[in-house]
Amino acid sequence: MSEGELADDAPSATIPSSSFTYRYSPQRTQQNLRNFIARTPDPAARANLEQTLAAQPTLMNEISAAVRAYGFDPHNVADAYAVWWINVWGASQKQNIEPDPETVEAVKRQVRSAFAATPDFAEGGDAERQEFAEALLLQAAILGSGLDQWESDPEMLEQLAKAARQGALASGLDLTKMRPTRDGFFSRR
Predict the structure, then answer these.
(1) Is 174 helix (H, G, I), strand (E, B) or coil?
(2) pLDDT at position 173, please?
(3) Radius of gyration of the chain from its Cα atoms, rounded to whole angstroms
(4) 35-44 contacts: CB < 8 A, separation 24 or more?
(5) 36: number of CA atoms within 13 Å, CB side?
(6) Is residue 156 classed exposed, middle or buried when 0-12, 13-18 and 19+ CB atoms within 10 A define those classes?
(7) How far apart are CA 20 and CA 166, in angstroms?
(8) What integer pLDDT is reported at residue 2 of this predicted model?
(9) Which among 22, 2, 15, 19 is positioned nearest to 134, based on CA atoms?
């Protein structure tokens, strides 16, 4: 999806949440975590991630509980994208975002609308949706953890913010040109 599909200046249509859910499989979660680790390009980061996941075997359950507290469904790929979007934007600004319920709902509607307009997305099955959702949730959690860990280290915070901006840009989002509002993400004026 492009930035235009996600961060336009018009309110998003209401799309049913159920359009983006998947049948959750704990076995798939384990495979998805292995895939996520294998795709981590930096060997040191990969080793650190392996250690973290080995030490926290219930990490995905903890992440799921955390996002539910904000009104997100962890088994809904559109909600997972909304979590990631809010967190990556916050990381780009060097701050943990605590979104209010109105902002959460607006960003969820915005993502659902963009996903509904993406023809290939509808063809994805449960396995693909779960892998994408879990990768997004894990990335969002890593960003949040980094913000907490480096809150008093300006140099590391800047590196995290830069990585967030670059990662989002690689996904088609220029975070420097948008801001979250109670109506979703909009272009900065």
Answers:
(1) coil
(2) 93
(3) 16
(4) 35/131, 36/134, 36/135, 36/138
(5) 23
(6) middle
(7) 27
(8) 47
(9) 22
> Exposed, middle or buried: residue 134 (CB in 10 Å: 0-12, 13-18, 19+)?
buried
Closest C-alpha to 184, from 9, 4, 19, 15: 9
Domain-wise residue ranges, the chain: 3-187
Q: Write down the H helix ranges in the chain.
A: 3-6, 26-39, 43-55, 59-68, 77-92, 101-116, 119-122, 126-149, 154-170
Residue 152 to residue 87: CA distance in whole angstroms:
19
Mean pLDDT by 10 residues, the chain (189 residues): 47 64 94 95 92 93 96 96 97 92 95 87 86 96 94 95 95 93 87
Place of tokens 């336009």: 8
Distances (CA, A) of 20 to 81, 82, 104, 120: 11, 12, 16, 13
pLDDT on residue 121 = 73
pLDDT of residue 16: 65
pTM: 0.89
Sign of CA pseudo-dihedral 116, 119, 122, 125: negative
CA dihedral 63, 66, 67, 70 (to 10 degrees): -170
Name the residue type at position 143: L
